[in-house]
Write a structure and sequence with these properties.
Layout: H1 2-13, H2 17-24, H3 28-36, H4 43-53, H5 57-62
Helix pairs in contact: 1-3, 2-3
Length: about 70
């Protein structure tokens, strides 16, 4: 389910997998594998998502609450 929410996040941000990978210091195949559920995001990747996108990690992990911690202006 994390992979599904990660794809929702990426679409909400209007990004391609390669864009998100660049933002997070990863390669596009890592984003693809996370979205498909083949791998789980590392702690470092989760923290990068939180910092870069103001992502609410509780939402990513559980699907509960809001997608973002605060306004992304």
């Amino acid at each position: 389910m994390i992979g599904k929410r990660l794809r929702i996040l990426r679409k909400e941000l209007g990004k391609r997998q390669s864009d998100m990978a660049k933002d997070l210091g990863l390669n596009a195949s890592a984003i693809s594998q996370m979205e498909s559920g083949k791998i789980r995001p590392s702690i470092e990747s989760l923290l990068a998502m939180w910092k870069t996108y103001k992502l609410d990690l509780h939402w990513l992990l559980t699907g509960e609450g809001e997608m973002f911690c605060e306004s992304r202006n």
